[in-house]
Amino acid sequence: MEIERRMLKATWGYDGNLEPLYEVEDKEDEILVTFDLPRVRKENVEINTTEDTVEVIAKMSDAVCWERWGGIQKKITFQAFRKQIRLPEKIEPEKAAASFKNGILRITLPKIRRKVFIPIE
Amino acid sequence: MEMEEVVRIVEEEGVVHKNPIVIAGLPDVGLVGTIAASYIVDKMGYKEIGYVESDLFPPVMVIHEGKLKCPFGIYGNGSVIVLLSEVVVPPNAIYPLTRALTAWIKEIGAKLVIPITGLPVENRVDISKPEVFAVGNSEAAVKELREKQMELLEEGFIAGTYAIMLRECRKRDLNAISLLAQCFPVYPDPGAAASAIESLEMFLKLGIDVGELLEKGEEIKLKARDLMRQINLSAPEMQKGVEQDMPIMYR
Fold first, then answer.
1. Is A65 on the interface with B (CB under 8 A)?
2. Is A119 a domain residue?
3. Which label site among A51, B67, B197, B234 has the fewest CB atoms less than 10 Å from its CB?
4. Residue A27: which CATH number?
5. Is residue A116 in a domain?
6. Is A12 a domain residue?
7. Rounded Cα gap, residues A35 and A23, in angstroms
């Protein structure tokens, strides 16, 4: 159902935002989310997290203008990438870390885990 | 239904083939083949000499400069043929497509088939110049790769259109060499495409400068987002995950 919905949804909006390509990976104790952000500089990336979401707003260094494309969107300009992702598990927002290299944003989100030691009888 | 009816290769009239080398750039991981093939077509000024259509393909046509086109085009100049698709090949079309393509490639007397694709690597972001590996489909092809000191993919699985293309070529006694450039697993990778084009020079002296491809990398990535997303959605069905697996017969 999720796949069908995503296939039907356009990856751009009339608000001037593009949806970036992203990947969510479950890495046991943490969730790793990466975003592909071409034309973006590190200082123009804003990340907001809650316990179960991560949102990225990334302003492009130059706006993209696509012309002669489609009907309604004959000329459209995009200034930023914007995406909010619902995470598969709750995380600790205060312990999140991020890095940005070669246009790839990497956000590490530690899961909320209460570890209990189980002794073997 | 006859196989030929499922996939139809339509050529422009009057095309003369001179034992061409066929480059295949179909959408796959990192869009390496598609980006490389489209850059080659652009830089070499190859004309569209045909197209591929199939009832198994999505009901999609593409419009470029006001002209209606099939999204799976055949470009070239007689001695080089480039197969270039702007839409994802559905998994159920792979077998009939590769059979029809290789039958046609054999018929036009091609001397070598080179499918270009990507080899996904986790640490791609830390690699400044992606390496290119090769897979040959015959002893002759592997010998040629060793002579050219290409890095061979020695063990592992390969999956997707190019894997079946290599097999179908072998069945028809066609030499095929696939070039696999290290790439991002789920993002378009112009840098990997540039490496693949540079390796292609070992087989085909086109003299293409990849500078512009690297310079315009970010712009290409922006345009390639939608096709990349389609590829990512179809990857599980294509069994792409198996490429990370260890074969049981590993030596």
1. no
2. no
3. B67
4. 2.60.40.790
5. no
6. yes
7. 7
Helix (H) or strand (E) holding B82: strand B80-85
A7: nearest CB among B222, B225, B233: B233
The predicted complex's ipTM stands at 0.85
CATH of span B3-240: 3.40.50.10900
Identify which of A118, A110, A112 has the alpha carbon closest to the alpha carbon of residue A31: A110
pLDDT value at position A2? 47
The CA distance from B228 to the nearest CA of chain A, in Å, is: 8
Please give the tally of structural domains in chain A.
1
B181 contacts chain A (CB < 8 A): no
Q: What is the DSSP letter of A69?
A: -
HSE-CB of A58 using CA atoms within 13 angstroms? 24
Under DSSP, the state recorded for B129 is: S
Average pLDDT for B18-27: 96
A17 Cβ under 8 Å from any chain B Cβ: no
Tokens of B149: 């000191």
User: Model confidence over B88-143: pLDDT tens digits?
Assistant: 999 999 999 999 999 999 999 999 999 999 999 999 999 999 999 999 999 999 99
Query: Of chain B residues 222-241, which have a CB less than 8 A from chain A?
Result: 222, 225-226, 228-230, 232-233
Please indicate whether, in this complex, the C-beta atoms of A36 and B184 are within 8 angstroms of each other.
Answer: yes
Query: What is the helix (H) or strand (E) element at residue B174, kind and residue range?
Result: none
The conformation of residue A94, written as its DSSP 8-state character, comes to G
CB A85 within 8 A of CB A109: no
Tell me the nearest-neighbour CA distance from B124 into chain A, angstroms.
10
pTM, to two decimals: 0.90
Q: Which of A107-111, A114-118, B158-162, B222-226 is predicted with the least confidence, judged by mean pLDDT?
A: A114-118
